[in-house]
Amino acid sequence: MTGQLPPGETGKETSTLRVPHQPQFSRCRVKYVQRRVLVPALSAVFSIAVVLSTGVDASAQSSSFPDIGSIFPSTGSIGGGTDSAVAQRISAIFAEHGVPGAQVIYTDNNSRKEFNYGVANAKTGDPVSSLTTFEAASMTKVVGTYVVLQLVDEGLLDLDTPLSKYFEYPRIAGDPAAAKITARMVLTHTSGLPGWATAPSGPNLDTTPLNIIFEPGTQWSYSGEGFYYLQKTVESLTGMKFTELAKKRVFDRFGMTSSNLVYNPDFEAVSAVGHAADGTPKALRILTNANIAFTLRTTATDYSNFLRGALVKGEGLSQATRDMMFTAAGSADHGGSDKDAIGHIKWGLGIGLQNNELGKAIWHWGDNGAFKAFFIAYPETGKSVVILTDSQNGLDTIDEIDHEFFGPNTVYASRWIKEAE
User: Rounded CA gap, 421 and 304, in Å?
Assistant: First the structure.
């Protein structure tokens, strides 16, 4: 298949690359019987905190919400039951799939329901709270896209001018085809660059030569390298590191007080660690080099603030640019056999697009190996859900969590993801 998931983003070992197109889901299913027993025992120790908020603006800061342990009375219903019943079902879903810890934020216009589940570290038993931070993996790309599109609105960057006109990237020097790559191609994953040429968190990222795998602009193939090239271009144009750009243009704007692109020791006490499929905890990853393809560490509250403010409401973007972001640039055909799913998935500027029984949705997923994440939003109705997990099994829960909040519908995005991985 043509769609290459970024191997280094799995975060398993910086010196090891995932073999492109190697099926991953069959291996997870082999371990399924083993993991069903471990996490239910852990989850029984901790309760799920449900925060019910009405009239909350998307830029509200996470510190305005109570800590874990505050169980609020049920005041409404979602998915055919009371909020406490939904919380119990969400708990059962995560336990069934062997997920040690997770955060879920569901929003409906200005109301928000928050569910915190399980443990941030299966070894220490530290509970997940509203302030626990998770690796958002490839959902970082959406934050990077938003910054880039602001610069497009400001006239600093043109989507269809080759990036080579702005920045001489040593890794593609002398390749006339690579010199044609534009920001639009990067954002729509048609750049022709591979997923990763080397481990993106390793020491050789900036020195490993890059070779294109097809003529830029001619087909779809998921590429972290493309986003890193775009990051380097933007940093050259602005004279600012992307950590500064993200803080100024995203984190400060949307009250994302628990978010960062590089390791921050101040957040270590509330940082979840990733877990293998059998529930074994990994060591805390210390990422010191910002990469707009995968290094965001955040909370579901923070990311939901960004999702609703930047994308659903379009704050900070011109209407034309936001509309262009949600317009299909072409097929997102990764070469899988599920043609029905592929037919319902397109790619806009930096985000996936899904069309199903509920209408048009925007979505993205994250896979850093031991951390999995997902969001989906319906801009026309104002509804969205953000899921962050500290588990290799996290993406197995997408359909069931989605159905809790949106009711019966075909989640083509999850079917597409299964074959992409």
Answer: 25
pTM: 0.85
Longest dimension (CA), the chain: 64
- DSSP letter string over 39-90? HHHHHTTSPPEEEEESS--TT--GGGSPPTT--PPP--EETTEEHHHHHHHH
pLDDT tens string 201-214: 999 999 999 999 99
Q: What amino acid occupies position 297?
A: R
Report, in this order, helix, strand and coil percent for the chain, each rounded to 5. Answer: 35, 15, 50
Axis-axis angle for helices 32-43, 83-96 (nearest 10): 140
Alpha carbons 262 and 288: distance in angstroms, whole number: 5
Amino acid at 92: A
In three-state secondary structure terms, 290 is coil
Alpha carbon 34 to chain centroid distance?
A: 27
Q: pLDDT, tens digit, for every residue of 219-233?
A: 999 999 999 999 999
What's the CA gap between 307 and 301, in Å, rounded?
10
Please report which residue ranges of 174-269 form alpha helices under DSSP H.
183-187, 224-238, 242-246
Alpha-helical segments (H) within 193-349: 224-238, 242-246, 300-306, 319-325, 339-344
Pairing of strands 383-389, 101-108: antiparallel
